[in-house]
Design brief:
about 160 residues; OB fold (Dihydrolipoamide Acetyltransferase, E2P); five-stranded mixed β-barrel; 5 strands
Length: about 160
């Protein structure tokens, strides 16, 4: 009985630590960056890409949600590396409704999807051509999901 309880606790703890997304990247073209898509949009259209970044804006339209993202390179766990140089802005299109209070500005996400037709938009008064990713899977990172860094904490737990 004691052995089963210890095993159950161990499995629960290990599952709680597994915060990395499980996204099948076997068909993803790893060289397909937002800049490369804009260089050759015809060759990129319909290919699978895995991009991530920081949410800048979200708009729920009639049947689709549009997320404007500042893209960053991804680490081994597919988390955006916000300490690296940005790769540009992209639009992520997700069918249906996404809750704007959940997908808020500043949160990190990783998206697997097909490259779609680029869209023209404005950043302030400047015209911008956005590469588009039609989402198949979206992983929204929690601020506590710091999978890219290992942290050690030492201390004495005394509370008054």
């Amino acid at each position: 009985m004691h052995h089963n309880l210890c095993l159950l606790i161990l499995v629960t703890l290990l599952t709680a630590c597994a915060s990395n997304p499980v996204i099948d990247v076997s068909q993803v073209d790893g060289a397909l960056t937002p800049a490369r898509v804009m260089e050759s949009p015809v060759d990129s259209h319909g290919k699978l890409a895995l991009w991530g970044g920081t949410i800048l804006d979200i708009q729920n339209l009639k049947d689709i949600t549009q997320i404007e993202v500042l893209a960053y390179p991804l680490d081994r766990s597919q988390r955006p590396l916000q300490n690296k140089k940005p790769l540009g802005r992209v639009l992520v299109l997700q069918s249906g409704f996404l809750e704007p209070t959940v997908y808020t500005q500043g949160k990190s996400l990783t998206v697997l999807g097909e490259v779609g037709d680029s869209q023209q938009g404005l950043i302030g008064e400047t015209s911008y051509s956005y590469p588009v990713l039609v989402a198949q899977e979206i992983h929204l990172w929690s601020p506590r999901d710091d999978a890219s860094q290992t942290k050690f904490h030492f201390g004495i737990g005394i509370v008054f």
